[in-house]
Amino acid sequence: CLGGLLTIRGTKKVLQILEKSRKCAQNMSKSPSSSLPLLQWPYCLRRCSYCNFNKYISREDNDHIMTECIQRETETLLRLSQVSCITSVFFGGGTPSLAHPSTIAAVLQTVSRWARLSDKAEVTLEVNPTPVGKSKLEDYCRAGVNRFSIGVQSLQDEDLKILGRDHSSHQALQTVEEARRLCPGRVSVDVMFGRPKQSVESWENELSELLRVCDDHVSLYQLTLERGTRLFKQVLGGEVTVPAEDVTAEMYRCARRTLQQRGFLQYEVSNFARHKAASHHNTSYWKGRQYIGVGPGAHGRFVPLGEGGVHREARTQTLEPDVWIREVRQRGHGTRRRIQLGHLELLEEVLVMGLRMTDGINHEHWEMFSPHLGLREVFGTSREVQELLQSGQLILDDRGLRCSWDGLVLLDSMLPALLVELERQIGPSLQRDHHTDGSPH
């Protein structure tokens, strides 16, 4: 059940609260709108040295097969979720800008057949800023895309080579310029810090250069050394060095200051926007809304109402494209794993994702998921949480629960104490209610 449960005495009162929680869960599960992270296009021309995403180098031209299967899985999962309105679509990957614009148009047409695609829906496509990617932008717009996310990553050509990127800084800037011409105010750029040999000073200069040409949205990502990648092996073997942790921390602080000075508001750990250009799609994740994942390796969170479900599920699609294609052709979808989210697991996601936003979690939003135990009841009495509040890193007030400006940098170190307290408060009440209801422990 999605509703929270109070620890109380008396069977009658327990049943009343359980019934109220059940109705709350039903109301939430029938939410008429959803985000659709379409499509997970799994193919790339080559693998970047730092990347461990689910991506593959296509051995043959099977765009038509992939398009057909993405359309079919889209139909299946939309029918299963019974969502009536789609508020955003995100084409990620892989490299979705390798897909033909007709693929994008076909998928959006399928969405429109099985749900209402809002006139104001945000339709984003991730773009690799190569000449080929740039040349297709206008056709993508005609297909229905109205927002671009450009993977610039760096304006240093030597760094782009180390990262295994297949574009130059000049090509990236040209792509950003063309995207801004086509979708003014709706272009995001991705840029990476903590790269090999990078200094705080060089990063500050690079970011300033990027801000002179970028649009109204910037996503910052710290380079992460993922086990099994080429870059991980190079660093492990001493061929390449990356900045120390304290240096990358200063790079992040420097970026926040610089972006703020240029009129960008930070609305999430890694995301900054001006002129109200925050990503609607990503905000849906952080606010715990339902979303449907389509394509190899895609993830989703929704209630399968079409088969009588009342609980939200975490769903993962099959990773390997060839296997996923076979499964979609056989049964209409390639869902490999589905896990029913319990009350505690759902609240954990709401907490972890919500605190990534600078606005944090307001009381009304929390009560949608936990109508009987509010933020103050869950977190207001813990000694560990009180220490975070007194330090000024965490704020719990009439607005809700959120990190301070300085605390947002330390979110990862604060989450363990918050999650322990959440489990301490929620876990026992769930066990007691199961026992009262006659269910086994």
Automatic annotation (TrEMBL):
A biological-process GO annotation: porphyrin-containing compound biosynthetic process
Keyword annotations from UniProtKB, A to Z: 4Fe-4S, Chaperone, Heme, Iron, Iron-sulfur, Metal-binding, Mitochondrion, S-adenosyl-L-methionine, Transit peptide
Subcellular location: Mitochondrion
Keyword flag Electron transport: no
InterPro entries, per the entry: Aldolase_TIM, Coproporphyrinogen-III_oxidase, Elp3/MiaA/NifB-like_rSAM, HemN_C, HemW-like, rSAM, rSAM_sf
Principal subcellular localization: mitochondrion
Residue ranges annotated for the Radical SAM core domain, each copy included: 28-262
GO terms under cellular component: mitochondrion
Molecular function via GO: 4 iron, 4 sulfur cluster binding; coproporphyrinogen oxidase activity; metal ion binding
Function: May be a heme chaperone, appears to bind heme. Homologous bacterial proteins do not have oxygen-independent coproporphyrinogen-III oxidase activity. Binds 1 [4Fe-4S] cluster. The cluster is coordinated with 3 cysteines and an exchangeable S-adenosyl-L-methionine.
Family statement drawn from the similarity comment of this UniProt entry: Belongs to the anaerobic coproporphyrinogen-III oxidase family. HemW subfamily.
Protein name: Radical S-adenosyl methionine domain-containing protein
Organism from which the protein derives: Cyclopterus lumpus
Source taxonomy: Eukaryota, Metazoa, Chordata, Craniata, Vertebrata
Encoding gene per record: rsad1
